[in-house]
Amino acid sequence: xxxxxxxxxxxxxxxxxxxxxxxxxxxxxxxxxxxxxxxxxxxxxxxxxxxxxxxxxxxxxxxxxxxxxxxxxxxxxxxxxxxxxxxxxxxxxxxxxxxxxxxxxxxxxxxxxxxxxxxxxxxxxxxxxxxxxxxxxxxxxxxxxxxxxxxxxxxxxxxxxxxxxxxxxxxxxxxxxxxxxxxxxxxxxxxxxxxxxxxxxxxxxxxxxxxxxxxxxxxxxxxxxxxxxxxxxxxxxxxxxxxxxxxxxxxxxxxxxxxxxxxxxxxx
Length: 268
Prior knowledge:
Blueprint: E1 2-7, E2 11-18, E3 21-29, H1 36-49, E4 59-64, H2 70-81, E5 86-87, H3 108-121, E6 125-130, E7 133-139, E8 145-152, H4 154-163, H5 184-211, E9 217-221, H6 225-229, E10 237-238, H7 242-254
Parallel strand pairs: 1-4, 4-5, 6-9, 9-10
Antiparallel strand pairs: 1-2, 2-3, 6-7, 7-8
Helix pairs in contact: 1-2, 3-7, 4-5
């Protein structure tokens, strides 16, 4: 079985795959730093809770946008699972070209999403990830990475509201019954949710218009992606496991070569 690990700014998402099927998934916060032993023990416990033995893990692949956790996380994989993970980054085969000015600046999460979008749904496509940041990636028919848009995620916007204002409270992010808010909480929910819906619609339509590409599919993923997708006709597919499958696809392209992660030495 394959352990696919997506390290985001808020959570670390783990997916265990048997072939193309996800047989287990679980999460851990990425904002709290841990030692390799803490990561390792938590990982073994979560695998065990899902009926999976460490010996059943044949390979590991990681995509990360949080460099500071990588040393301990990778070392935990080596120490507790006995496997050197593949890490999405320079030198790894993805099957797509980055046709932008500074390819080295493209985050591994964006690359992983582009790979999954092309392989699972075909191009041209716009892949939207509603995470800590909301990201939009445009690929052509061949899956080449043409452009990207990055905006504050809905949780970042919400956090700014209640942290940077004196009287606005921390609220649950959900769609209110009406955009016509009658009190503070529903007014904030309306601004956050409908604001994200409006932004999403506009960015999708502008990316389509400026690119000139025809029949562009729009695929969404990420924690709040379902909420926005249900309200946005421009989104064709919501796939909560898009990045996990993207990691699986990249692993398949690289598994015959040895992982090049010598910079991570076993230790704390």
